[in-house]
Amino acid sequence: MNKVFLIGRLTRDPELRYTGNNTPVATFSLAVNRNFSNQQGEREADFINIVVWRKQAENVKNYLTQGSQVAIDGRIQTRSYDDNNGQKRYVTEVVADNVEFLGSKNSSNNSNTGTASNDAGPSPYDFGNAPEPKGTDVDSNPFADFGSSIEISDDELPF
C-alpha cells in the first residue's frame, strides 16, 4: 500500500503548467514539522515536493500562496531522468489525490508550538507575507437574513 498523509505549509507559491494535451499540473514544496526537537530544542521540518493534477491543480494555484496551511492525501512516486550532463537524476515526490485548505499563514501566529524564544531571531518557518485568503466572515451569523425564528420544545418531539 502506498498512502501518504501530510499537514504543512507551502514554502513557495504553486507553479501551474499544462501538459501537451492541456492537462493542468501544479507543483509546490510543503514544509512539514517533525514530531521531535533536535539537540538545541528546535523543531525541524522536512521539505517535500508535491504534484497536483487537473482541476485541483488549478484550485491550488488560484487559492494557495506561500505560507498557506494544507492537508495532503496522496502517494509517493519516484522517477528518474537524464540531466543536461547525461547524469541520471532521481526525484521522489508526493502525488496528491486530495488537497484540503486548512488556514492562512496568519492563523499560525496564535498556535505556535515551537520552543524557540522571542530573542532567538527569525523563525526558519517564516514564509514571508502571504496575503489573507478571501472568504466568508466567520464571525457573522449566516442565518441573519434567513427569515423568522421558530421555537421547538422537547414536548413536541415524537420520541
Can you describe this structure?
There is one protein chain. The chain is mainly beta and 159 residues long. The protein has a single domain (4-148), classed as OB fold (Dihydrolipoamide Acetyltransferase, E2P), CATH 2.40.50. 6% of the residues lie in helices and 42% in strands. The chain has 1 helix and 6 strands, in the order ββββαββ. It starts with a strand and ends in a 56-residue tail after the last strand. Mean pLDDT is 78; it is low at 108-136.
What's the SSE blueprint?
Layout: E1 4-10, E2 15-18, E3 24-37, E4 43-53, H1 54-63, E5 69-82, E6 88-103
Parallel strand pairs: 4-6
Antiparallel strand pairs: 1-3, 1-5, 2-3, 3-4, 5-6
Features:
159 residues, 5-stranded mixed barrel, mainly beta, 6% helix, OB fold (Dihydrolipoamide Acetyltransferase, E2P)
Summarize the structure.
With 159 residues, the chain is mostly beta strands. The chain has one helix at 54-63, and strands at 4-10, 15-18, 24-37, 43-53, 69-82, 88-103.
Mean pLDDT: 78
Give start-end ranges of low-pLDDT stretches.
108-136
Q: Determine the structural class based on helices, strands and strand pairing.
A: mainly beta
> What's the number of domains?
1
The CATH homologous superfamily is called Nucleic acid-binding proteins
CATH class call: Mainly Beta
Helix content: under 10%
CATH topology description? OB fold (Dihydrolipoamide Acetyltransferase, E2P)
Order of helical and strand elements: EEEEHEE
Radius of gyration: 21 Å
Which strand order spans the largest sheet, edge to edge or round the barrel? 1-3-4-6-5
Number of helices: 1
CATH architecture: Beta Barrel
- First-residue to last-residue Cα separation: 46 Å
Major beta sheet summary: 5 strands, mixed, barrel
User: How many strand elements?
Assistant: 6
Specify the overall morphology: globular
Strand content: 35-45%
